[in-house]
Amino acid sequence: ALGFLASVCFGTAMAGASAWLVVAFAPAASGSGIPEVKTILNGFVLPDVATARTLCIKIPGLMLAVASGMALGHEGPMVHVAVCWAQALSRFSQQYQHEGKRRELFSAAVAAGVSVAFGTPVGGVLFSLEEVSSHFSSRTLLQAFIASVVATLALSVSHLSGEEQLTLFSVRYTTPCHPSEYFVFALLGIVGGLVGALFNAANIRWAAFRMRPAYKQRVRPITEVLVIAFLTLLTSWPLALTRPLSPDAIHALFDTCDRGPGPTRQSKLQIEIGFFTPHGNQS
Fold this sequence. Notes:
Blueprint: H1 2-25, H2 34-41, H3 52-67, H4 75-90, H5 99-118, H6 121-132, H7 138-158, H8 181-210, H9 213-218, H10 221-236, H11 246-254, H12 268-273
Helix pairs in contact: 1-3, 1-10, 3-4, 4-5, 5-6, 5-7, 6-7
């Protein structure tokens, strides 16, 4: 009971603190920031999106929101944070006072942000090229690739994840798959695609409902965040797999489990879920 109360109360409080910071000091720091960055790179002016104030609120707000236990991650906001840093550093170079040059810098920053979030330099360049930027010259391609590689190297040297891996989602699975398991993998992919499509359809309708003036007048942003965080933490507690943060749950599901010490050793969460007995035997 004490763990349940601590999880719900502290998680809801951190989510509320994150929402309060954003509403009170930098409303432009809300959300992932990718739509706003894409809008800027398509030629529109959003003066508050990449300011130093937005950056100073985005970082602690992101930390509180992720630590609260809600179903969200740091991958999208990393793009926004990278663009804010690019905007701040561009002030020290006369070359990037030109709007076109600054957009090229933002495209490279987007690539660096994605590469840091997922540990994939090429993926970051492709994301900036295909999803965000409307103009992507060969010069911008080179800048984006260099920025992505440097960002990934810095990530590998810093060891921010605390393990011998680039990102929190890296897993070690050394056991060969049985041929029959590929059918299950394909079935999971189909089910995941259908569930994702249903979720996107519901999210579009919910977003349209939230834009109604009556909803905005009756439901404040902080109240909405508090309710969502409370319901998320309340419903995720009964299952041991949904209690921890997403990286821990992913490692418990997909890491190879050995009884001895090493990078593939059994975790406490794998025993709590029921994958193994306290003596180390598979259940």
